[in-house]
C-alpha cells in the first residue's frame, strides 16, 4: 500500500495548516441478526464488532491548498472531516488544525474554520438567510463594516443577493447550498471543510459553486479540504487528491499523477468506411464497442505509438480520436483494486448489554 | 470585484469586546422571536386549548363540593380551589417547556446538534434564548384570554396580597421557569445515551403531573403518612423539585405559605435551580464527549 506522508506546498512560515499523525477511529457496531427470536435474545446478549473507519492516517496540508478526499462510500472520508472539525474524537493518533487540536473545541479554533455538510443546514429554515447571517456576525464577532463588505462580496459572487431576504424553506437545493456557503465564509475562515458540497445539484449550480470556491480560495488563500463523489469537482478545483479506501490513504498527490499511475489504456475511436468483419479489430486492442462503422478500442498505453500507425495503414479510417480513460473509470478501478485490509484487527467481541 | 486580500486578513480579534456574550444572546433572542412569530396561528390555537382542562377541573371540584357538607377541603374552600387552579395555570405558563426535551433529543438523533460543536456558541445558552422567545410570544398571545378568565373569575380570589408577597411571587415564578427549563433540558440530553427518550419524557410528565400540584394542591398531602413518624407525604414532596413548577407560586399568592416556611421553600426552589443547571451542564459535557467518541 502506498501510504505517502509527504506535505504539500508548505506556507512561508514552514508550518502546515493541517497536520495529521497516525489518526485512527474505531466504532463499535452491534450486529442485529434477523428474526424475532434473535431480537429477543438480543435484549440480553448482543454481539458487537469494531469497525475501523480510519486506520492510522498521516497527512500534511499547507496554507492555501485545495485538497480533495476521494473514496467510495464508507471509506472514511466523512469520519476524517469530522475528526478535523472536532465533532468526533479519535481512537488513536493526533491532529492539529491551525495549531489547535480540533476535538478540544476551543473557541479560538472554532472562530477560524468552517464546515459545510451537504445535507445539514446552518441556516434557519423558516427565516430569510439574512437573519442567519446576522446571527453569525454576532457568534463570530465580526465587526459591522467588515461583515457587510464580506457578505456583499460573497452574495454577489454567487448572485444570490435577492434570495437573501426570502425564507430559506422556499429556496431550491442549489440556492440553499449557495447561501450555506456564504454563511460559512462570513467570518473569513482560514480553513474550510466541505462535505459533498455539490451533492444533488444541477450542472449550472455545480459550475457556479466551482467558480466561487476557486475565487475565494485563490483570493483569500483559504485552505480547503473537500470530500466528493463527483470527478467534476475534483477536476475543476483540486490540485491535490487524497484517495481513501478502507480507512487508509491509498494515494496522495496531484490529479495528473493518479491519471499517470493508474491509466494503463487509451481509448481510440475510429470511424471506418464500412462495418468491420467480426474479429477484424481484435488484433489492435480490446473492442469496447462496435456500432456500425464506428469502433471504440481500448489499447494498452505502451503500445499506442505502434498500433495507431498500423491501424491507419491497414484500415480505411475516415476519422479517429485518442482519449484518456474517463476519470470516473480510473477512480472506480482504483477503488476496486484497493487491497482489503485483513480482518484480524476487526475482532468480533461479544458483549452483554 | 475583489475579495478581501490575504494581506488584509487580520487575525481574529484577540480581545473580547465587552458584553459580547450578551450581544450574541440578544441576537439569538431576536431571531428566535422572529421564528416563533412564523407559527403564530399554531400558537394561538395551542394557547386557547390550554384553557380546556381547567374548565373540566373546575366542574370536577364543584361536584366534589356539592357532594360534601364540608365548607372546605384541606383548608381550600370552593373559591380557593378555582383560584388555585387558575394560579397554577400561570405557573405552568412559566415552567412548562413543551417540546424542549424532545427537541434536544431529536437534534442529537438527526445530527443537527453538530452545528453547536462546530460553531463557537453555547448550546444551552441558545436553548435558553429560544425558550424565552417562545415564552414571550406565548404571553403575547395568551395575555388576553388569561385576563378575560381572571376577570370573569375575580370573585373567587382572595384580596390582592401585599407588595412583598407579590415580589416573592414573581421571584418564585422566575425560578419556576428556570427550574422547568433545566429539568427538561437535562432530560432531553439523555438523548445522548438513549436513542429514544419519549417514554422517559412520558414517565417524567406523569410524575410531574402528580407531584407538581397540577392535579391537586400539594398541602392536601399533609395528612397522608409516609410510614416515618411525623413526616407526611407533603413533607417529602416539598424537598422534591416538582411542586415548584406549579403549586408553590400559587400557594405563595394565596398566602398559604408564610414566614420561615416561605423562606425555606424559596431556598429549596433556588437550590433545585442550581442543582438542575449544574446537572444540565454536566449532561451536555458528558453527552457531547460520548457523542464524539461514539461517532457523531
Question: Could you walk me through the main structural features you see in this protein, from its secondary elements to its overall organization?
Answer:
The complex is a heterodimer of chains A (353) and B (296). With 353 residues, chain A is α/β, with parallel strands linked by helices. Among the domains of chain A are: 18-112 and 189-260, P-loop containing nucleotide triphosphate hydrolases (Rossmann fold); 265-324. Chain A has helices at 36-41, 77-84, 107-110, 129-139, 144-158, 173-185, 203-220, 231-237, 255-262, 304-314, 327-337, and strands at 18-30, 46-61, 66-70, 92-97, 113-117, 191-195, 223-228, 240-245, 248-254, 265-272, 286-291, 294-300, 317-324, 348-351. In chain A, the strands form 3 sheets. Chain A has a 6-stranded mixed beta sheet, sandwiched between helices. A 4-stranded antiparallel beta sheet of chain A has the order 4-1-2-14, with helices on one face. Chain A has a 4-stranded antiparallel beta sheet with strand order 11-12-10-13, covered by helices on one side. The two termini of chain A are 38 Å apart. In chain A, 39% of the residues are buried. Chain B is mainly α and 296 residues long. Chain B has one domain (20-294). The two termini of chain B are 39 Å apart. Classes of the chains: A alpha/beta (353), B mainly alpha (296). At the A-B interface, helix 3, strand 5, helix 4, helix 5 and helix 7 of A face helix 1, helix 6 and helix 12 of B.
Topology:
The complex is a heterodimer of chains A (353) and B (296).
Chain A: E1 18-30, H1 36-41, E2 46-61, E3 66-70, H2 77-84, E4 92-97, H3 107-110, E5 113-117, H4 129-139, H5 144-158, H6 173-185, E6 191-195, H7 203-220, E7 223-228, H8 231-237, E8 240-245, E9 248-254, H9 255-262, E10 265-272, E11 286-291, E12 294-300, H10 304-314, E13 317-324, H11 327-337, E14 348-351
Parallel strand pairs in A: 3-7, 3-8, 5-6, 6-7
Antiparallel strand pairs in A: 1-2, 1-4, 2-14, 8-9, 10-12, 10-13, 11-12
Chain B: H1 20-38, H2 40-49, H3 51-67, E1 72-73, E2 76-77, H4 78-95, H5 100-109, H6 115-118, H7 123-152, H8 163-189, H9 198-211, H10 233-238, H11 247-253, H12 259-294
Antiparallel strand pairs in B: 1-2
